[in-house]
Amino acid sequence: MSQLSPRAKALLYSNLEKYARSGMGMEKACESLLRQPGVSGNERRLYQGLLEGMRRGRSIGDALGDALGDALGGAAAWVTPLEREVVVAAESGGKLERGFAHLAEYFRRHDRTRKKILEGLTYPLFLVHLAIPVSTLAVTAFRSFRLDGEAPEGGYRVALETCGWAVLGLWVALLIFLAAAWFLAMHGRTSPLVDGILRRIPIVGTARRSAAMERFTQVFEIFLLAGRTMSESFSGAARASGSGLLRAAGERGEAIVAAGDPLAQALLASPEAFPDDFTRGMIVAEEAGVLDRELSEWGVLYSESAGEAMARLAEWTPKLFYWGVLLFVGALIIRAALAYRDLIEGLLNFGA
Questions:
Q1: What's the pLDDT score for residue 352?
Q2: At residue 149, does pLDDT exceed 70?
Q3: Taking the CB of residue 9, how many other CB atoms lie within 10 A of it?
């Protein structure tokens, strides 16, 4: 898992994009960034590792994110395979600045979404942390009331222990959920099965699909403009997409296109990976000889779609959590009300 926050990565790739666009070599760019004040320790180690890797003759993509994590003395552990694939594709296509720009925007969206979700979760978390002890102590008070004045042994002590265990259980469940979500998201980048499952989740699936298609179209265009073969462009874009379904489609499509068949056959061979409107548009563009323009237009469209989907995800995640918390709090209130009813019935029966 990355040790750099999405905000830090957005700034990192934004800085690299500016230097790449200016035509300055990446070695000089890293040297300049290392001299800047306020650079965090993790960023400094990454810049230093990138610089040392390039000085040893490695490509920028390999130096930035070695798959085994041995190229940068540990800095590669902060770079995901997705980042490395995008940079490798952009570098090999001669459009390094576009790869950095895409990653900067990707992490900006990630940072905005995470902040909005955390802000939205503040009140529900406060509510549930307040409701658990209040309801538990209320139930204990109602059940502990005795007309003879004798309180049951360990009543409030047991109630406080119950509160502690309930809060702990809540956080354990939340951490398990987050760990499972992270695990599925990571495996969804390479596993068609996991990616297919995630795509079926409302809102989440739309965000994943739009972001993956954005990367696919942009990298595909970069490769075509660089003069790469159609099979190489198709498979390279699929690897950089961060989607297990697109990766598998790229492997199948590469063989189809390399055998001399048109791109249309590669797209039609994987209907589960590519939207129908995208496939139809690409078929027409291939026949008309305007694939690069078509990919550019789809890249803009999917970029906008990914931004909207991430905004919806940031809006609805706190709402769904809040509704779940309301149901949980409602159950606690009903539990306290039942305890109060039992108390009233006991008093009435005692008086009778």
A1: 54
A2: no
A3: 24
Which tens digits make up the pLDDT trace of 100-113?
Answer: 888 898 889 888 88
Fold of 114-352: Receptor-associated Protein (1.20.81)
Helix or strand holding residue 345 (H, E): helix 291-351
Sign of CA dihedral 24, 29, 32, 38: positive
DSSP-derived 3-state class of residue 162: helix
Q: Which class would CATH give 6-106?
A: mainly alpha
Average pLDDT score over residue span 194-205: 91
Lowest mean pLDDT among 93-97, 173-177, 269-273: 93-97
DSSP 77: G
Q: Give the closest residue to 248 by CA, choosing from 271, 219, 265.
A: 271
Find how far residue 226's CA is from the centre of its chain: 30
With both helix axes pointing from N to C terminus, report the angle between 244-258 and 204-225 in degrees, rounded to the nearest 10: 30
Q: DSSP labels for 208-261?
A: HHHHHHHHHHHHHHHHHHTT--HHHHHHHHHHHTT-HHHHHHHHHHHHHHHTT-
Asked whether 138 and 123 are in contact (CB, 8 A), the reply is no
- In the predicted structure, residue 205 carries a pLDDT above the cut 70: yes
Please give the Cα distance from 233 to 230 (Å, whole number): 5
Per-residue pLDDT tens over the stretch 39-50: 777 778 778 878
pLDDT band, residue 3 (cuts 50/70/90): low
How far is 116 from 315, CA to CA, in rounded Å? 7
Amino acid at 109: R
Where are the CATH 1.20.81.30 domain residues in the chain?
A: 114-352
Query: Residues 19, 33, 221, CA angle at the centre, nearest 5°?
Result: 30
> Model's pTM, two decimal places?
0.76
